[in-house]
Specification:
This protein has 165 residues and is α+β, with helices and mostly antiparallel strands. It has 4 helices and 9 strands. Strands 1-2-5-6-7-9-8 form a 7-stranded mixed beta sheet, sandwiched between helices. α1 crosses α2. It starts with 9 loop residues before the first strand and ends with a strand. 28% of the residues are buried.
Length: 165
């Protein structure tokens, strides 16, 4: 039986350099081949990258954010009329609580508002939870990358979301 958790109340905001440690820790917990912390820092300075964090609503007091406040993040890369979800991840404690849905919905709203016609991403074939989320938002399988993931070796499905007309 699936562990049904209450939706976690989060606030989305642009990531700051102070969030890099938390993002790197989430990345390490979520992926077997994690991005280094330097990748997050570099992307924050790029015009074509949107780096958003989900912060626990109850952890923000008087502009002070507690260390455990960052619950997830989403990186959307965009050029011309296309985007790519570079990464989306949620801390293990917040999985199943709607944080990834909130982050993805925000990325797709940004895509719509900024004239992106399509958004792509890769997902492990075995990641049923993520595939279910992407399917619920209208992503379609458009390709397969053989042995894309390492540790363990696994294919990736290439998914595409198209802006509603």
């Amino acid at each position: 039986m699936h562990d049904a958790r209450a939706r976690e109340s989060v606030v989305l905001r642009a990531a700051s350099p102070a969030d890099v440690g938390a993002m790197a820790a989430i990345e390490l917990a979520a992926f077997s081949d994690p991005w280094p912390a330097s990748a997050f820092r570099e992307l924050m300075d790029r015009d074509h990258a949107r780096v958003i964090v989900a912060v626990r609503n109850d952890a923000v007091r008087d502009d002070v954010v507690r260390d455990d406040a960052v619950r997830g993040y989403c990186i959307l890369l965009h050029v011309l009329d296309e985007g790519e979800i570079g990464n989306i991840a949620v801390t293990p404690a917040a999985r199943g609580a709607g944080v990834a849905s909130t982050l993805l919905d925000d990325a797709l709203a940004f895509a719509t508002d900024h004239g992106l016609q399509s958004v792509f991403l890769e997902v492990r074939v075995s990641n049923a939870a993520a595939r279910g989320l992407y399917d619920s938002r209208g992503f379609q399988v458009v390709g397969r990358r053989r042995a894309y993931y390492q540790q363990p070796i696994e294919d990736a499905l290439v998914l595409r979301w198209e802006r509603p007309t």
